[in-house]
Design goal:
Blueprint lengths: L2 H13 L7 E5 L4 H17 L2 E8 L5 H17 L3 E5 L2 H8 L3 H20 L3 E3 L4 H13 L13 E2 L2 E2 L7 H11 L15 H16 L4 H29 L9 E3 H5 L3 H14 L6 H10 L6 E6 L2 E6 L2 E6 L9 E4 L1
Parallel strand pairs: 1-2, 1-4, 2-3, 4-6
Antiparallel strand pairs: 5-6, 7-10, 8-9, 8-11, 9-10
Helix pairs in contact: 1-2, 2-7, 4-5, 6-8, 6-9, 11-12
Amino acid sequence: MNAVEKKFLDQIKRRGLVEEGERVLLAVSGGSDSMAMLSLFEAVRPVLHIKLAVAHCNFQLRGSESDGDEAFVRETASLLGLECFVEQFDTRQQAKKMKKSLEESARILRYGFFDRVLKERGFSKVSTAHHVSDNAETILFNLFRGASLPALKGIRASNERIIRPMLLLRKDEIGAYLEGKGIASRLDSSNCSDDFDRNFIRNRVIPLIEERFANKLMPSLQRVSEQAGELEEFLELYFENLAEREPGLSLIDGKLEVDALRQLTVFEQKEIFKRALRDMDAPVDAQALQKLVDLLSSRPGKVVLAGRGLQVLWKGKMLCFQRDTISSSGQQGVTEG
């Protein structure tokens, strides 16, 4: 077992990502990162006594190139004696139906597929090949979107049944590992295009920053990621305790208590509203949160439209979160009740 494989095994053990005897589904695209992950899991499989299988998504976005990726992954899995699950998606059509970007639609389809395989085939975990650079891209992407501080945690090593054991591996380490092992991989030509936001960050933004601040960006973003993750854990516990002390701050029957909210700081109010909007499957953005905070300074009868047909009405002593069947546009604003 070489140095990278030992580092990989250490991460799995130290973070408790995989237990002995578990069945792990590996998300393999055929690209360099996922092919490295497949090889790394093959190396540690005898130590962990785990069972492996491969899952591949063909998003049909690059014609024959996508089909070539699928064939390559199927052949690789077969050579290793691993079961291979493949799903083909009409991603462009699905994106239109969901009214989301191709990137977001592919992500939803991908994890939906993984979840089905986990449930139907009895796997306990699905592993993806995200690494240090992917985490940096995610943090910068969230930052540019105006995300809150906890959202800057980036990618976590584990999230329920999804694990990411390569998060501490650098891209150069992965490249050297593949070269040293003589492992073939596929090149996704769409990664070279700057049309997608993540590609632009990867291909243009990060190299420019690293050129100016050599060896500074990745460690700095890793620290931000760790600290933001710690902050999120603290906030979750804090607001759980707060809701226990003040039941009016929990969204019960679509209602929050105005007097209890007005006793809080603006930061606390926004955090309560974030959780309420998520519970109601409404978009969480800075504009909506500020309108809800401003609502507390108005008077009963006022309404905030919070997106996806959700309206928040100050009625009596309560803020009432309810679906507005008349307004389906999701436009945000404030009206007189």
